[in-house]
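2024-03-11 09:14:02 DEBUG pipeline.ingest accepted 1 chain
2024-03-11 09:14:02 DEBUG pipeline.ingest length=267
2024-03-11 09:14:03 DEBUG pipeline.predict start
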Amino acid sequence: MPKIAFLGAGNMASAFVDGLLGRRAAQAAELMCYGGADATAATLAGRTGIGHATSIEQLLEGADTVVVAFKPQHLASADPRLAQLTAGKLVISILAGKKLATLAHTFPAARHLVRVMPNTPGQIGAGMSAWCSHQPLPASDRAMVEKILGALGKFVAVEETQMDAITAVSGSGPAYVFEFAAALRDAAVAAGLAPDVAHTLAIQTVLGSAQLLAQKSIEPEILRNQVTSPNGTTYAGLQRMAARDFRGMMRETVAAAKARSEELSRE
């Protein structure tokens, strides 16, 4: 019987499955997915060899852990049978903006409820996830949560009051990085480089800089200063960024995303 059931079979569910199988944290026979009327579950099952349920009852029968991975806006219209079918199970939700108290209305008899904010780099095992739980977890359930989130990359346990800020930083953050990479590419073209060269330079510069920062484990300002000579080219560029208040713009960006996350949590 499957131990982990995926209610939803989109990109993030696929990332979990790929990570669990790739890291040998689970076998295909232990996993099952259900995607409703669309073909996502059949596609995921066909590609990975995991089980493909044709009904919610089949998905949840015998499963110990349920990963809720459908679209957040579908929670309000979720099948009312989920209340009984998830009774006694560990329920892990990746529904953006849905608080634990809201989840408790849909899964009132769950053994434990966990809310997770993953991000898209989890698709390649380089993700960052934050999680919180409705009640303190016993060691066995905490180990299961960490095994599943570890399939995506790194993770951290937080208080739920921090989830809106985390959504704005690491949840939305990849989009900010992609926008920066696109801006650097466009600036390179404007400076006279061929588009293909500009594309390669921008991507590799972002990638290499992030890897260097992660491996050095020092403050980014230190690495920035190591690139910057007094009154040199990097200094000139940084002065322009400071004049346009680049850091202030980033604070406003995160604040706007956090405010929207708070709004979505109230809907």
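2024-03-11 09:14:41 DEBUG pipeline.report The first strand starts at residue 4 and ends at 7.
2024-03-11 09:14:41 DEBUG pipeline.predict end
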